[in-house]
Design a protein that fits this description.
The chain has 292 residues and is of the alpha+beta class. Helices cover 40% and strands 15% of the residues. It has eight helices and ten strands. A three-stranded mixed β-sheet has the order 1-3-2, covered by helices on one side. Helix 1 crosses helix 4, helix 2 crosses helix 3 and helix 4 packs parallel to helix 6. The radius of gyration is 21 Å and the shape is elongated.
Length: 292
């Protein structure tokens, strides 16, 4: 797991994030994703003031193993001086060895965040789900950690002031917030009370804003009047403007519009009829009100 360095902001990895969410739904199915209905609770991953370092780390690791629904996976956690925040040895199991940076001996509040990322590596290893390229695979891991209810810990580890900054993981703070917002919509959660970091809350708010704007894009019925008007004009010509989140296929009565499902990002294709319809995503089963 990446540790420290200059903090990048914004949404530079959205294509990879979207691909990761689609891949997760394809691998687990909608029911498998929905089985992770409640995020890990703050109290379950908090360190007690007098708690032993190693016993506390093992307890939090067990909590995250259960949360991610990993069967019979025992995590052995140790600490050593290292460049990165954490690392995991991926073997056939049943034991997995996680090493945490020595600095977590002093910053125990972030141990849960580091373990969440590494234990998700174990989950993805068992699912045989991965992306080509190390960095893309790390972005996949951050996205899955967050979407399955443990990644709010990674965002909460983000702290920044005029002199110092700390961030764990490979997604930007705003991208963590965006994935959290997508999860919150599916599971009807509000993660904002869990943040202890003001910077994490602000990043979540920016990610939430993007997720809400995406849910109001044509041909979705919640799109604003101006967007619907522009979409209707493009539909008449059967040609979407450059950069539009939708595209047209065919012509005349066979004209169809293709757009990403706002939940799982799988492409949905429906007739561009101009009449209000309800479309159901075949992958995540989300039902969408559309004006195609």
């Amino acid at each position: 797991m990446a540790n420290g360095g200059e903090v990048v902001h914004g949404f530079p990895h959205l294509d990879t994030v979207h691909g990761a969410i689609t891949a997760l739904y394809k691998r687990l199915s909608a029911d498998g994703v929905l089985a992770h209905g409640a995020s890990v609770a703050p109290a379950d991953v908090a360190f007690g003031d007098d708690e032993d370092l190693h016993l506390g780390a093992q307890r939090i690791a067990r909590t995250l193993v259960r949360h991610l629904r990993l069967p019979e996976a025992r995590m052995v956690v140790s600490f050593r001086a290292m460049e990165h925040a954490a690392a995991v040895e991926l073997t056939a199991g049943p034991e997995y060895f996680i090493e945490l940076n020595d600095r977590f001996r002093r910053h125990r509040r972030d141990i849960g965040a580091a373990l969440a990322h590494e234990i998700t590596h174990v989950l993805l290893h068992r699912l045989a789900l991965g992306f080509p390229g190390r960095r893309e695979n790390e972005l996949l891991t951050d996205t899955v950690t967050t979407y399955l209810g443990a990644g709010w810990l990674l965002l909460d580890a983000f702290r920044e002031d005029e002199l110092t900054s700390q961030k764990l993981g490979y997604l930007t703070p705003e991208e963590f917030g965006y994935v959290l917002a997508l999860r919150a919509r599916v599971f009807d959660e509000d993660p904002s009370p869990w943040f202890t970091s003001p910077q994490a809350y602000e990043a979540y708010a920016r990610g939430l804003d993007l997720a809400r704007r995406e849910a109001r894009r044509p041909p979705l019925a919640d799109a604003g009047w101006a967007r619907r008007h522009r979409y209707a004009k493009e539909r008449r010509h059967g040609l979407a403007a450059p950069g539009a989140p939708y595209s047209f296929e065919g012509a005349g009565t066979s004209l169809r519009v293709s757009f990403p499902c706002p939940t799982c990002r799988q492409r949905i294709r429906i007739p561009a009829s101009g009449r209000r319809v309800r479309a159901r995503c075949g992958l995540c089963r989300t039902v969408l009100d559309c004006e195609p």
